[in-house]
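Internal ticket #5521
Category: modeling
Description: The requester needs a full-assembly model to guide mutagenesis choices. All entity lines are attached below as received. Residue total reported by intake: 748.
Assigned to: D.W.
Attached entities:
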Amino acid sequence: MYISGIGKTKFGVLDKGLPELAYEAMYDAIEDSGIPITEIDAIYVGNFLGGILQNQLHMNSLISSLLPGLNIPIIRIETACSSSGAALHQAIISLSRYKNVLVLGVEKMNGIDNSLLTKGICAAGDCCMDQNNGLIFPAAYALVAKKHMEEYGTTADDLALVALKSHENANLNEKAHFYHKKVDLDMIKRSPIVCTPLRLFDCSPISDGAAALVVSREKRSKRDIKILASSLKTDTISLAQRKDITSFKATRLAAAEAYKEAGISAKDVDIAEVHDCFTISELVAMEDLGFCKPGESKDLVRKGETKLDGRIPIGTGGGLKANGHPIGATGASQICEIVAQLRGEAGKRQVKGANIGLAQNIGGVGGTCVIHILKKED
Amino acid sequence: MVFVCKKCGKVYYYDVKRCIFCRSEVSEKKDSKLKVKAFTEVLVPSSDHKQVPYFDVLVEDDQGNLGIIKSGVRYDVGHTLEPAGKGKDKGSLHGLKMGIVGTGVTGLGIAEVALMHGMEVRLISRTEDRLKKAGEEISRFMAKFMAEKDKNEAMGRYRPSARIEDLGDVDLVIESVVEDKKTKDEYFRKLDKICKKNAVIATNTSSLSVDELGENLKDPSRFLGIHFFNPVPRMALVEVVKGKNTSEKTLNFAVEFAETLGKSPVITKDSPCFIVNRIMVPYLNEAAHIYGEGVASKEDIDKAVKLGLNHPMGPLALMDLIGLDVVLEIMNNIRNKTNDRKYLPAGIMVKMVKEGKLGRKSGQGFFKYS
């Protein structure tokens, strides 16, 4: 099974609507793959907030409207921020029946009153336990950060380094939300507090965007990237329903299964896209994915090991933090970045000698975790 | 907070009754003391949590189960909290026995909020028929917000009565009858005799003098104003009005009462129309003047205020909602008390009241209603 085509719109504050964004990403993925749209057997669409923000559900039929006369099976998948990661997981499973499947992730988040948007995103948390207590997403991750700091001595400065690295990478990615934004440590450390200890620069931005993938049963071109593993695990929806909040069980379980399926271990991974919706989430992911021991992610960051020229480059396109986080598009966008890197087509941000890439896509505060491992075939 | 399977020990966070793993009974675990594990101060508002900053506190019970509590105050790590009862609100007067005299919109609103916060409510009206209707209205309202079981429990604390004498054992009475001094005087003279000596007696008046109403009581130190805003369940503000004789104890009790209902109290001296209405009266009056002078259309006046001052509703529509007769009465009250010409009602308002154009309730005010 292969990723044979990728397409991604610019991420950011865009004047395009949901259908236009979706179409652009699909168009680019089809063009990139060389497989005609008429040979696509099914489409899996990842979208999170359309129902709440645009009052647009029945997303599969909306996508059908963009493809006149095709009338193929289209299904929308929603698992909060991991919607298009989960859509890819479903697409891969469906290859037992279909030959070529399209995965689309799309989200339109700008142009909506901020407090409504914040509430909308809260829909990924338990309505009684989290939402009624005002546990908005930055607040939940702030609690994770507090505990991580208390248990492992991680500091706000470490988080700032994570943000800085993401912005540096985004400056090399034309399609990133913050491609043009110049950021330094001082700016990060002086940014306003959102939820203690998290500052504005610890949070991913509110982005519009779409990303699409063509997934095929057979290899057709040298540019096709092999899918070694696809794993999805779930856990309780609320942070308060766990015993330990400095680690996500869903990630640990999905990682273990994915490594087994791929026949590799964490140390074989050359590059990774992790779900850094908040800087702290990147640190937790590094530990849960086994790139280091629990509590040691800060050491990798301090040594610059996650930068483009480090031991394990993370978020090479800027991550959710600076590439942007159009929620439903994020999972597919991560795969676009890994595929570009493994093909050697990542331009200025190309990591040398990258053969195996891993993408970790999380829904909510670790309630869903989808992991994909991809490999460049000789 | 949690439900535990009696046999296999699986922990559930919802009332699931039976364990899907071993099919045994799942029962609620009694809340233990909660230890603060971490907290975050939230500085960004969201539409259900507009008031910031607030704190989200991560707590742990004695079994290591976590929980989240929203708090207006900061609790440091290691601090121990009592198990959350009715929970979210600051006040501690859940279970209070209280009386409400009057079954108007405000009276019912107070009853609904009090019942939803665990209080026992005696609602007094002159007729059984009105009480029956009030009970139905309250029940219908609460059904929108509560599970059937909780609603029934709350309605179990609702005690309507046509006899004011039934208020002999309550700790607080709020009078919410028609805005007429003579009528209110009569009720307070009765309440002074009926109520326990240490019961707090309050008026929900919006424009009469709390001190003058308090003269009906032998001991005015137990008297004050507790002024709610309509619709009571949705409006966060309560003006607590301290008369010249109101004791600190009475005042503190009223503040605690408002907080128990999840409201945000403000304290004001007894002064014509207190804070909100005193600001509102010249504001509404000016809007009526602008309309009367033909400066702008009624639609544009409301649109200007909504978009320019970020009010949810324009002044003309607001007057229609309150009722022009009520607004006029408040204006006359404040005008008579202060002798200040700035409160002289606009001619157009006087004219409209004379013509019976009272707003929504008469089908026509500044706007038409059908």
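Resolution: model delivered.
Comment from assignee: Residues 276-292 of chain B form the longest helix (17 residues).
Ticket closed.
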